Each structure stands twice: as C-alpha cells, then as structure tokens.
C-alpha cells in the first residue's frame, strides 16, 4: 500500500470499529498520547477552545469507553459512517496530515434512520511503527448536539 | 490498476449499474454461480439463516430482474448508492475479501429524497478471468423493509 | 500519484472548497474555457438542452460567485459533499473521463440537517499543466430545486 492507501485504510478501519460497536478497539487506532476531540465548525471559526468532547491519551479514551459501557444510558442504536474527499499532505517523512469529510447516519432500534452528523476530520497520522492517529479533530457542521454524542464520531 | 483499485472499480461499476437502472447488467458482475443475499444486521448477529432476498446463481439473478421488469409493481424512482470505507484482505492469490459501507438514497417521482438503506457489503471477489463477485452479502442496518426492496441493493 | 489518485484528489479538493465556503477558489479548478452546468436526470434523458445553471468559462464562474456574494440572498448555511463510485476512463493521453456519484447534505443555521441533492458528476479532466476540469456536468437525481441552487454543487 502506498501512503494514500494506508491513510484510507486507517480511516476505513476506524469507521467499521465504531459501526460494528467494537468500541474497545477504538483507542488502539491512536498513539499512546494521541489526541481526540469533537468541536463545532462555529467554535473552530471563532477560535473558541471549548470542545464538545476531548481526550488527551489512549488511557483517557479507554476510560471514556468504559464509562459508556457501564452507564449504558444510550438507547440501542447503530451508526453508519461514510467518509469521502480525503486530501492528504506530508509535511515531513514521519507524519501525514489528512482532511476528509464524513457523514454519520443513525439507525434507531425502531428501524428509523436519519442523518445524525456531518463534518470534517482533521488528522495528524504517524506511519511508524504502524499507521495510527496522533491527533483526530472532528469538526461538526451543525452546532446542534444531543447527549448521544457521548459515543465517538 | 492494483488490487485495491480493481476492487473499488468493481464496487463503483456495481453502483452505477443500479443507479442508472441498467438492471440487466447487474448479474454480469457476478460469477456464473455467484451468490447474492440481503440480510439484516439483527438476523446476522443471531445466526438466523433467513435472508430478505437470496440468489444462488447468475441465472437466478436474471430471473429476478425479469420478474421485476414484468411485474412493474414499483413506482418510478431512482436510487443513489454511496460506498465508502473499503477494507480488503487477500486470503489467497485468486480471491479477495472486501468489506465496505453503503448508503442508499431514494428519490421518488415527486422529487422527494430520503435515506433508504445503510449497511455493509461483505464480498468475496475473484480477479480471474475478470473482477467479479463470487459472493455479495448485503447486511442492512435497519430491520425495517418495504416491498420496494425487491430491487437489488 | 497515479491517474486515479490524481482524479480523486481533484474531486476531493473541489468538495472542500465548496464546503469551506471558499467559493472564490472554485473557478480555479477549471480550465480557462472550462464548462460547468447543472441539469436534471429527467432533462438529460430527454435531451432537453436547458440546464438549471450553466457557465462557459472561468470568467463566467467568477461573475457568478461575485453575484452570489453581493446579492447575499441566501441564508447562512453549510454544505457537505460526499463523493463516491468514481469510474474513470482515458480516451486519450491528455484527457480523462470521470463519472462519480455525489450526495450533498445541507446544514441550516438552526442546525437542522437534511439531504439536499444527489446525482452524478460527468467530467472531462485535463492533466497538463495541472489537473483541471475541462467540463463538469452535474446531473441531479431530483427535478425539485429551490433558489438555493444558485450555489455551485
């Protein structure tokens, strides 16, 4: 696989892990001190620092998933991620910057299906020793959120 | 084209054949004894064998399309397939396993547009003599179906 | 980047320019005498010449964007483009034909999100001196349009 294929493969595995409800595997896609945060386009444009959700390490991500599993506050539901328009650049040999668009569909237990979220992933990716996210910033188009956002996007 | 490009090209042609209403070309994307079935995520998780729709050969697929054309029960409408997150593996030299996510939008004659289905394609693909589906399993996220599902996804 | 990657990269940059509201950069993705038009599947099938929107050069595209900015008739909103199922062919060494599927999500100022448009891009692309659209025809699945279509798809 070349660099573009490697990046697209990482994005694809990320989506399937979330959509298959294999949330425990999600932190393993980040470096040990990987960053993950969800923000809104509005906040990013204004330079406001307050993200909707933020993790500063794999350990924090694991905690977040464990809380989710124990709290069990969320209704049974499925997500379906669609990712497209990947643009990559390579500022240096060891790192890749990737921008891509996403759409998340939510399927409720009743079978009802609707657009849940859309936006952009802004990523810094390392290739060695394996392709991993060093940072993933999820910038949502809409500022409207509900409590279900506790699940990673 | 390398293996990944070949697989993505096959998936892309599949989508355009359905969305352009060139249904008669659909069986030609499978091997002569190719399998196609639609199931729900719920049924697959429970190991229930009953698929929503199932074909065991190209001939059966041709029959299905002919019935569709003759029955003409369905309202005039369009579909639009979006496919993403392709993950491929190659268990042996002659076969490829592919998992990808899909979203199908339905456009009614009135112009009304809505999310129709989402889910995963689980495929076995052969490359020789040409890239063809040996098996395509369509696993829908929602268990809600209507009669329109008679058209392949 | 090989030919397929070059084409996908061009499609991706196109989407981000529109979704980031960097409309002034949009004409720069076309050749100086590049063509752009939006039509409906219904009209294309009937061979009707009247497109919903049509530009015959980069200069016309710049005018269109300037009018949009000055008129300022449209409500604050965001778009999110998803592109998939790219099929490319290369009729000669200097040109590429590309067909791809798109879905556009519209996010209103209120945060409300809905499917806005879907359809096919039919493109002629040149590679030299840089990858640019010589022609982009946007064929929308739905014949239902509102005034907001003044913004490029």
Which helices and strands occur, and which strands form pairs?
Three copies of one chain form a homotrimer.
Chain A: H1 3-19, E1 30-40, H2 41-46, E2 53-55, H3 58-71, E3 77-92, E4 95-108, E5 113-126, E6 132-140
Parallel strand pairs in A: 1-6
Antiparallel strand pairs in A: 1-2, 3-4, 4-5, 5-6
Structure, described:
Three copies of one chain form a homotrimer. Chain A is of the alpha+beta class and 153 residues long. In chain A, 24% of the residues lie in helices and 44% in strands. The first copy, chain A, is built from three helices and six strands. Chain A has a six-stranded mixed β-sheet with strand order 2-1-6-5-4-3. In chain A, β5 and β6 (132-140) form a beta hairpin. The longest helix of chain A is centred in the first third of the chain and has 17 residues, at 3-19. The relative contact order of chain A is 0.23. Chains in contact: A-B, A-C, B-C. Chains A and B meet through α1, β3, β4 and β5 of A and β3, β4 and β5 of B.
List keywords for this structure.
homotrimer, 153 residues, 24% helix, alpha+beta
């Amino acid at each position: 696989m070349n660099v573009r294929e490697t990046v697209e493969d990482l994005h694809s595995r990320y989506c399937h892990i979330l959509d298959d409800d294999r949330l425990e595997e999600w932190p393993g896609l980040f470096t040990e001190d990987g960053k993950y945060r969800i923000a809104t386009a509005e906040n990013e444009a204004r330079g406001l620092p307050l993200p909707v959700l933020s993790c500063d390490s794999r350990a924090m991500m694991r905690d977040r998933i464990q809380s989710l599993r124990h709290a069990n506050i969320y209704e049974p539901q499925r997500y379906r991620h669609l990712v497209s328009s990947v643009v990559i650049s390579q500022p240096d040999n060891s790192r890749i910057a990737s921008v891509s668009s996403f759409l998340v569909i939510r399927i409720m237990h009743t079978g009802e299906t609707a657009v849940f979220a859309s936006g952009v992933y802004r990523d810094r990716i390392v290739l060695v020793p394996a392709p991993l996210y060093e940072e993933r910033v999820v910038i949502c188009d809409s500022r409207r959120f509900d409590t279900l956002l506790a699940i990673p996007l």
